[in-house]
Amino acid sequence: MNEMVVQQQVDAPAETVWRVVTDVEHAAEFISGITHIERVDTGSDFVAGFSWRETRRMFGKEVTELMTVVAVEEGHSYDVESISRGANYYSTVTVAASGSGSMLTMRFRGEAQGTVNKLLVNLVGRLFAGVNRKAMQQDLLDIAAVAEQNSRT
C-alpha cells in the first residue's frame, strides 16, 4: 500500500499540539473516531514501548488494534506500529511550527503479509484508502480543535 499523508494547520503552538497528540490515554475523549483506549504497557512516559489498545468503529463494527510506539523525537514526531490481520501498519505523527501556529502531519502505510493478503489489498485497497484518509483527516481536525482550545485557555 502506498503511503498516505494528511496535514492540518493548527492555530496553536507546536508545544500545545504535541501535548495533545501524546495524550493517548485520553484520546477517546476528543477524537471522535475512537470509542475506547486501554493502555497496556506499565510505563508512565510517552516513549518507545508505550502501547495501547485502540477501539474504533469501522464499517459498522468495532475494531480493536494493539498500537506500539517504536520511536519518539520528543516534541516533534513519533512512529507507531500495529500488526493485525495479516498486515503490518505504520504511522508517523509530526508536529512542526508553522507561521503563528503549527502543522500537524500524519503518515500511514500498510504492508500485507502473505500472498493471499497481498491479493486482497490489491483488490480492495482503493476502498480502504478513501475510508482511512477520511478517518485520518477527522482525527487531525479533532486534535486541532482541542489544541486550539487549550492554547486559548
Structure, described:
This protein has 153 residues and is of the alpha+beta class. The protein has one domain: 2-Layer Sandwich (Alpha-D-Glucose-1,6-Bisphosphate, Chain A, domain 4). Helices cover 33% and strands 43% of the residues. It contains three helices and seven strands; from the N terminus they run βααββββββα. The chain has helices at 14-21, 27-30, 115-152, and strands spanning 4-10, 34-39, 51-58, 61-73, 77-84, 87-98, 101-112. A seven-stranded antiparallel sheet has the order 1-7-6-5-4-3-2. The longest helix is centred in the C-terminal third of the chain and has 38 residues, at 115-152. The radius of gyration is 16 Å and the shape is globular. The relative contact order is 0.25. Residues 116-120 have low confidence and may be disordered.
Keywords:
153 residues, alpha+beta, Alpha-D-Glucose-1,6-Bisphosphate, Chain A, domain 4, 7 strands, 33% helix, globular
Rg from Cα? 16 Å
In whole angstroms, how far apart are the ends?
A: 41 Å
Q: Any idea of the CATH topology? A: Alpha-D-Glucose-1,6-Bisphosphate, Chain A, domain 4
Coarse morphology: globular
CATH domain class: Alpha Beta
* SS element count, helices: 3
Total count of strands: 7
Q: Which blocks of ≥5 consecutive residues have pLDDT under 50?
A: 116-120
> What is the residue-mean pLDDT, rounded to a whole number?
89
Please give the oligomerization state of what you see. Answer: single chain
Main sheet: which strands, in order across?
1-7-6-5-4-3-2
- Note the beta-strand portion: 35-45%
Taken in chain order, the helices and strands follow as EHHEEEEEEH
Q: What do we call the CATH homologous superfamily?
A: START domain
What is the CATH architecture annotation?
2-Layer Sandwich
Give the count of structural domains.
1
What structural class results from the helix and strand content?
alpha+beta
